[in-house]
Amino acid sequence: MGQPIKLRAMYDGKPMAGVSILHDYVNDPDQKPMMTDAEGYVTLPIRNQGLNVVVGIYVGPTDNPTKYRQMEHRASLTFVLPHLPE
Questions:
Q1: In tens digits, what is the pLDDT along the chain, a chain of 86 residues?
Q2: For the chain, domain boundaries
Q3: What predicted TM-score, i.e. pTM, was given to this entire model?
Q4: CB atoms within 10 A of CB 49
């Protein structure tokens, strides 16, 4: 906990720049997102003992422009850190 983690966002096998990353989706879903860099990387803090849920959101072009303007793709990474003794 408190240590940063470096993640890479990929889409269709390629690194994606500009992906919105929410680093504490369960406890703070309205947080200001961090963005991936030109190589798709982001370094973010791990805030929680116990459950952590990181969400990436990529908004891309539509495959059917007559029905919708864009497509939104989401992926999540969920992991649990042990609770530290008090």
A1: 668 999 999 999 999 999 999 998 888 888 899 999 999 999 998 888 889 999 999 999 999 999 999 999 999 999 998 888 87
A2: 4-81
A3: 0.84
A4: 13
CB neighbour list of residue 85: distance below 8 Å, 6 or more residues apart: none
Torsion on CA atoms 16, 17, 19, 24, rounded to nearest 10? 100
Topology of domain 4-81, CATH: Immunoglobulin-like (2.60.40)
The two most distant CA atoms of the chain are separated, in Å, by 58
Does residue 77 contact residue 54 with C-beta atoms inside 8 Å?
yes
